[in-house]
């Protein structure tokens, strides 16, 4: 049986596409990584990597192994976490995900409360959009995630717990002439670059309809720090949940376009997402209890939404 270290090395190589990047991510030398892969290939009696292309590719055997290796490594990590966390959150570990906007406010606040109570708990937070977080969850790379759930509500593989709603507001840098206009509508906004994170299709369609633009956004980036810097140094406009904008607004780094905000019908649709039929670890349950309580009626009542359990 191949040891898990070799499988982890193989997964990293497949994901990074080069020995140099994989070795750097694993904190190994390239010769050590190469020997590990050679030993794995020797034990399986087949080649796993196609070394004759510019970017390393997987052979058919390599693609098959990658699928099983990810499951084995995830299962091993889940087993370790489960054993360590039984009646002992101090020695446990939590691997979770967060969407770009929750990662800029809601999630760090909850994690701060969690590690204040359990300072020895190890927490890893992966930030990505809802599509990639769903895949990571189903591959058991993360246990839970907080993100936009509008496109996940009908997914039978998921349990979704609603979280409080935040209004979406429009902001820009101080000094913009738009701020002096009595009324700013979507057509005015469409004359300037619109920036934001990747949008669910239902939201993107509404933005296109309101602005008359072919593309909902001019600049798309899932890094909120980048977006805030962009707004402060350009004429871009951003429509985003108010919870992540409170601090830059209070510090005078951004200004709200109040008349445009009043026209926005969208709001945040944050949810806490886990795999259906899987009980949460003590660490995940502790994190859930430190998130804000759900707001009733914030998301389509026909959807499958569960209350957050303290």
From TrEMBL:
Family: Belongs to the LysR transcriptional regulatory family.
Protein name: DNA-binding transcriptional regulator, LysR family
Pfam families in alphabetical order: HTH_1, LysR_substrate
Span of domain HTH lysR-type: 1-59
Signal peptide (from-to): none
Listed GO CC annotations: cytosol
Record bears the keyword Isomerase: no
Molecular-function GO terms, alphabetical: DNA binding; DNA-binding transcription factor activity
InterPro entries, per database record: HTH-type_LysR_regulators, LysR_HTH_N, LysR_subst-bd, WH-like_DNA-bd_sf, WH_DNA-bd_sf
Keywords assigned by UniProt, alphabetized: DNA-binding, Transcription, Transcription regulation
């Amino acid at each position: 049986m191949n040891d898990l270290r070799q499988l982890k090395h193989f997964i990293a190589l497949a994901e990074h596409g080069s020995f140099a990047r994989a070795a750097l991510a694993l904190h190994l030398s390239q010769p050590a990584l190469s020997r590990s892969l050679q030993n794995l290939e020797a034990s399986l009696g087949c080649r796993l990597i196609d070394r004759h292309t510019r970017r390393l590719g997987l052979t058919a055997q390599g693609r098959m192994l990658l699928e099983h290796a990810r499951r084995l490594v995830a299962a091993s990590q889940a087993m370790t976490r489960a054993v360590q966390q039984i009646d002992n959150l101090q020695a446990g570990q939590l691997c979770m995900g967060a969407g770009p906007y929750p990662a800029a406010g809601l999630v760090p606040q909850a994690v701060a409360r969690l590690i204040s109570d359990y300072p020895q708990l190890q927490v890893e937070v992966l930030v990505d959009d809802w599509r990639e977080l769903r895949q990571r969850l189903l591959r058991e790379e993360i246990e839970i995630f907080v993100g936009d759930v509008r496109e996940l509500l009908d997914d039978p593989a998921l349990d979704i717990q609603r979280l409080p709603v935040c209004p979406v507001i429009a902001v820009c840098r101080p000094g913009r002439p738009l701020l002096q206009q009595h009324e700013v509508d979507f057509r005015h906004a469409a004359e300037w670059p619109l920036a934001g994170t990747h949008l669910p299709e239902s939201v993107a369609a509404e933005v296109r309809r309101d602005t008359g633009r072919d593309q909902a956004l001019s600049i798309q980036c899932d890094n909120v720090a980048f977006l805030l810097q962009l707004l402060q140094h350009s004429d871009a406009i951003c429509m985003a949940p108010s919870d992540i904008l409170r601090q830059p607004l209070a510090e005078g780094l951004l200004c709200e376009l109040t008349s445009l905000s009043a026209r926005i019908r969208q709001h945040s649709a944050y949810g806490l997402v886990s795999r259906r039929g899987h009980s949460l670890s003590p660490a995940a349950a502790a994190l859930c209890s430190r998130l804000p309580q759900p707001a009733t009626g914030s998301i389509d009542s026909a959807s499958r939404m569960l209350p957050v359990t303290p």
